[in-house]
Amino acid sequence: MKFQNSVNGYEETRSVPWLWALLFGPLYFMAIGRWSSAFFWIIVAVIMGFLLGPLAMPGWIILDLWYAIFAGSIVRRSYLSRGWYEI
Predict the structure, then answer these.
(1) What is the pTM of this model?
(2) What angle do CA 86, 78, 87 make, to 5 degrees?
(3) Which residues of the chain have pLDDT under 50?
């Protein structure tokens, strides 16, 4: 995915966001400035940990896979909502 800033023409490329989200989890979203997604991920993981204890691991894996599947649309929506264009 390639995006261009509508104000100054700056371009950014985000390749395989699903892979980076799968490998690095919320750290990937922090690195690209998508703080709300990262904090939501962390909060849900902590709540699952408190509620389920050691049984939370399958839930964390499902959460990680869910974010990896939707990482592309999260990144795209983030750029488009800030006024960037997809090229």
Answers:
(1) 0.80
(2) 5
(3) none
Burial of 44 (0-12, 13-18, 19+ CB in 10 A): middle
Distance (Å) of CA 58 to CA 3, 17, 44: 35, 22, 13
Distance CA 73, CA 87 (A): 15
Our count of domains for the chain comes to 1
Name the residue range of residue 51's domain. 2-86
**Residue type (1 letter), 15:** S
Going by C-alpha positions, the residue among 61, 62, 86, 77 that lies closest to residue 29 is 77
Query: 76: helix, coil or strand?
Result: helix
